[in-house]
Amino acid sequence: MAEVAEHPGPSQRSGRGAEDVSEHHETRGVSGDAPNVTTRTPQKDIPQATVARLATYLRVLALLTDDGVAIVSSEELAVAAGVNSAKLRKDLSFLGPNGVRGVGYDVARLRARIEDVLGLSDGHRVVLVGAGNLGRALVGYRGFRRRGFSVVGIFDNDAEVIGLEVEGLRVRDAADLAGEIALLRPTIAVIAVPDDSAQQVCDELVAAGMQSILSFALCQLTAPAGVELRRVDLAVEMQMLSFERVRNADPDEPVEGSTTANVAETATGQANESGAAGVVPNSAVPAARPLTGSGRIARRVPAHPMPGPTGMSVSGPESVTERDPGPTLVPNRHGLSHCAAQAAQTTSHTATEPTSKGSVVTP
Ligand SMILES: NC(=O)c1ccc[n+]([C@@H]2O[C@H](COP(=O)([O-])OP(=O)(O)OC[C@H]3O[C@@H](n4cnc5c(N)ncnc54)[C@H](O)[C@@H]3O)[C@@H](O)[C@H]2O)c1
Question: Residue 29 has what pLDDT?
């Protein structure tokens, strides 16, 4: 938390910018003076981009709590979250009055309020289907539990995997999915099976009553209306980084061991010095640009990044500034042909793709 303390640090006293918190004052929700959350903000009124940023604020608030910080100003919270303070105040206005003019936000109360709005107050029970490389890494990541997501069941259909213990959980037989889900009462299901099994698993989860499904399969899945289906593709995140890296390259500034021509070749997939299309030798890779560069991702990085525990990062700034390494991902051994066949019929929301209204548009 040293980063927060330095720029300028949240404290037990009111911080700079605390007076700004009075900008948001909606009549619904809790009063700034009320000790308890009594009224739910209608979640449907909150834009999805704001929801994604609320999750970021929540992460920052959790770290502040860990550090014993009781009050934080809007400016301090904004810096730590990597957004500008006006946007933060606008986001928090959806929660109703929370801050106190000249004082700031009560960290515990704001945290509880955001958890309430995000539906996290009671935590979530998560089941995961596919106890392979990815599934085991996800189950092994303790950050989920810290953030209210407890994996209560893990399933597989491989006889050699069923019965194995993963992080204290016995891998259950996927054939028993429906009955086990009725017993386990999960609120979220995660799909980590190969692409050619993903739709079938999705259908089984829906049939078992699951209404919130997160899929790591690369192919797009379909589900009935009323089922919230989100997809995470870390490769898309890296493709976006790749794009930003190329876009941020200054054509007038030669980079050691490289030329602007190299950059252009990388972007277009044309042959470079090595003679291989789209492959650039290490020496030709341009140096990283300063975070203050003109690129969209670079602009979203906080001036003073705050590391913190994160889960499957599908959002903006925190994915650049994580403290915890998160799950270790192992390359998939399956092809993509199945996905291509399904690409035409999609209903899933893609958490990481730029076309989504999802969390990629965080600050
Ligand atoms: N979105 C991402 O960023 C990302 C990253 C890595 C992997 N993936 C995807 O995650 C999936 C899993 O990858 P992996 O490397 O863990 O694969 P893996 O082969 O190591 O594990 C897959 C597991 O699923 C099980 N399985 C297969 N069919 C099943 C079914 N019908 N019901 C229950 N279990 C079943 C297998 O027995 C195996 O244990 C793949 O689709 C991969 O493309 C996505």
Answer: 30
Domain boundaries, the chain: 2-117, 125-231+344-355
Residue whose CA is at the smallest distance from ligand 1 atom 40: 194
pLDDT tens column, 145-159: 888 899 999 999 999
Please tell me which residue, 78 or 264, carries the higher pLDDT value: 78
Contact status, residue 139 vs residue 202, Cβ threshold 8 Å:
no
Write down the architecture of domain 2-117 according to CATH: Orthogonal Bundle (1.10)
The pLDDT assigned to 71 comes to 93
Instruction: Return the closest-CA partner of residue 135 out of 201, 192, 213.
Output: 192
Q: What is the mean pLDDT of residues 202-212?
A: 97
Contacts of 98 (CB under 8 A, 6+ apart): 21, 24, 30, 32, 92, 105, 106, 109, 110, 113
User: For the sheet containing 149-156, what is the strand order?
Assistant: 165-166, 169-173, 149-156, 124-129, 188-191, 212-215, 228-231, 349-350
Are the CB atoms for 138 and 327 separated by under 8 Å?
A: yes
CB 20 within 8 A of CB 78: no
Superfamily of domain 125-231+344-355: NAD(P)-binding Rossmann-like Domain (3.40.50.720)
- Give yes or no on whether 2-117 and 125-231+344-355 have one common fold: no
| b/e map 91-124, b = 16+ CB within 10 Å | bbbbbbbbbbeebbbbbebbbbbbbbbeebeeeb
Report the SS3 class of residue 123. Answer: coil
Cα(197) to ligand 1 centroid in Å equals 9
CA–centroid distance, residue 331 to ligand 1 (Å): 10
What are phi and psi for residue 327, nearest 5 degrees? -65, 145
Interval between CA 116 and ligand 1 midpoint (Å): 33
Q: Per-residue pLDDT tens for 213-234?
A: 999 999 999 999 999 999 999 9
pLDDT at residue 253, rounded to an integer: 64
Which residues belong to the annotated binding site for NAD(+)?
130-135
Selection from 3, 12, 9 nearest residue 69 by Cα: 12
